């Protein structure tokens, strides 16, 4: 559209490629370009190999009704770098690939954006001539059982959109003042099968930051009988950022997404009433 700043969505694809099928439709209509960034050797940031079936690319073609999706394949694993450094390197290389003439919105394959249309409308109100580093709020799912999700009672801030920056410094973060909003992304990071979570913990960029084996055992023990006992359990940051859990009945991620406004308000008002009142009136995206 004339006068609009291009919205370029970057999504890094790896062993958890199957989540892309659900995350893409949430973004598709309001993105100008969607770039799927894939290691051509099918290696993770830790150098381990994974399989990406041909059916993945066939499914992407089916989803790409308006020819918006670009596939960028390159060597993103460097054995001389740490997993976090490889993470950052891939994001910078992909940013260069899509170009800097617009908003670069980095959404990982396990992140479900709630009301992406409203978020892109908000981005268009910002001055594109100035550097911007826009943060949203994460709602982290920690585990899933047959009837629902264990959701962390914390709205974590997460970098998502940037414009007019030279490069990322660590993953999606940049050395630039944050523009904070309350638009919401549901992070499906931990709510996976045991096998999938083990794969993630041995390959992601934080794999060397804590005892993943011990923490995985703690995750396995969680259930509806004991979830209220999990207090201050973040694997890093001395645990303090994850104060407690809620249990939300939902058969799948779609049902959970339908409850996000209710879940978000519950988390906000439960843990920080004064900040909630401020956000209600002054932070973009609170009602979203």
Structural write-up:
31% of the residues lie in helices and 25% in strands. The chain is of the alpha/beta class and 288 residues long. Helix 5 (194-201) packs antiparallel against helix 6 (212-221) and helix 8 (260-271) packs across helix 9. The longest helix has 16 residues, at 83-98. The radius of gyration is 19 Å and the shape is globular. The mean pLDDT is 89.
Question: Strands, helices and their partners?
Answer:
Layout lengths: L6 E7 L6 H8 L5 E7 L14 H10 L5 E6 L8 H16 L4 E4 L4 E4 L1 H8 L8 E13 L3 E16 L15 E9 L6 H8 L10 H10 L23 E5 L3 H6 L1 H12 L1 H10 L6
Parallel strand pairs: 1-2, 1-4, 2-3, 6-8
Antiparallel strand pairs: 4-7, 5-8, 6-7, 7-9
Give keywords.
single chain; alpha/beta; 9-stranded mixed beta sheet; 288 residues; 9 strands
Mean pLDDT value: 89
Query: How many β-strand runs?
Result: 9
Poorly predicted segments: none
**Secondary structural class:** alpha/beta
Helix content: 25-40%
The separation of the N and C termini measures: 24 Å
Number of helices: 9
Calculate Rg over CA atoms: 19 Å
Pattern of helices and strands: EHEHEHEEHEEEHHEHHH
The biggest beta sheet is recorded as: 9 strands, mixed
Gross morphology is globular
Give the percentage of residues in beta strands.
15-25%
């Amino acid at each position: 559209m004339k006068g609009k700043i291009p919205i370029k969505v970057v999504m890094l694809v790896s062993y958890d490629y199957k989540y892309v099928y659900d995350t893409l439709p949430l973004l598709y209509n309001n993105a100008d370009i969607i770039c799927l960034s894939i290691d051509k050797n099918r290696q993770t940031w830790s150098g381990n190999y994974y399989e990406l079936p041909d059916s993945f690319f066939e499914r992407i073609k089916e989803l790409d009704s308006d020819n918006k999706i670009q596939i960028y394949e390159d060597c993103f694993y460097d054995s001389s770098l740490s997993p976090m450094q490889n993470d950052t390197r891939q994001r910078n290389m992909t940013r260069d690939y899509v170009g800097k003439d617009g908003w670069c919105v980095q959404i990982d394959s396990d992140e479900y954006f709630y009301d992406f249309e409203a978020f892109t409308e908000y981005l268009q109100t910002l001055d594109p001539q100035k550097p911007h580093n826009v943060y949203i709020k994460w709602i982290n799912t920690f585990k899933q059982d047959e009837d629902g999700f264990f959701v962390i009672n914390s709205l974590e801030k997460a970098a998502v959109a940037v414009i007019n920056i030279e490069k990322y410094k660590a993953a999606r973060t940049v050395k630039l003042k944050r523009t904070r909003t309350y638009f919401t992304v549901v992070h499906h990071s931990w709510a996976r099968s045991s096998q999938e979570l083990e794969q993630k913990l041995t390959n992601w960029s934080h794999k060397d930051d804590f005892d993943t084996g011990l923490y995985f055992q703690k995750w396995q023990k969680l259930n509806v009988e004991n979830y209220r006992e999990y207090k201050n359990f973040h694997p890093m940051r001395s645990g303090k950022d994850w104060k407690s859990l809620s249990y939300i009945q939902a058969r799948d991620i779609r049902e959970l997404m339908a409850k996000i406004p209710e879940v978000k308000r519950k988390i906000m008002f439960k843990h920080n009433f004064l900040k909630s009142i401020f956000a209600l009136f002054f932070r973009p995206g609170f009602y979203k």
